[in-house]
User: Fold CRISPR-associated protein Cas6 from Sulfurifustis variabilis.
Amino acid sequence: MYWQDSRQEEPRQVADDVVDVAYAIRCKTLPVEHAYALWRAVGEVMPWIAEEEGAGVHPVHVADSGNGWMRPDRPDDLLYLSRRTRLVVRVPKHRIEDAQRLLGRTLDVAGHAMHVESSTLRALSTHPAIFARYVVCDGTVDEKAFLAQALAGLHALGIRPKKMLCGIEKTIATPEASLTTRSLMLADLSAEESVRLQQKGLGRMRHLGCGLFIPHKDIQELMPAR
Assistant:
């Protein structure tokens, strides 16, 4: 954990250079490990997604638990999607029209049919606390080394976070190699820093859902006691 004192800032209008396109889908199940298969399916319609600056494919997320159900951990276990579940793709503004080509398609995601019905645009957030479920590690590193890597990457973007918190290691499998990742939460960012990080991302493999940040409830309550 990396922690410094807080600061306050007035809200600002969000630039629309990069947006999230959220698609309503009909899809009953997906494997827990679906990042590569989802990119391949989306990439058949949008072949530019892996190389386009500012673009990425968010992992399809379902609640970790609820109504007696616990989210499984094994890669081949199944996630059960609800009608509220969305497929979300982050794109630069000039690719919004291209992203509409997914509409009406039925994607094959590791043998699971995903029908894309409609879409809405979501502006990026100025929220001071943002979170990436996966950030690629450069090798297998402990928490301290990972935070040092992340901090160097953030400084290269002109972002100087006050608070960072990372999660346990997780692996994303691809035919070429297995990627070691950790989740990363940042808090107390300025509005400009928050939007910039969402626009730029952190690290590699954003087409596999890595380095893509989304708003998260603040972690002020986790501040160490004084």
Q: What stands out?
A: Residues 221-226 have pLDDT under 50 and may be disordered. The chain is about 15% helix and 35% strand. Residues 63 and 102 are 25 Å apart (CA to CA).
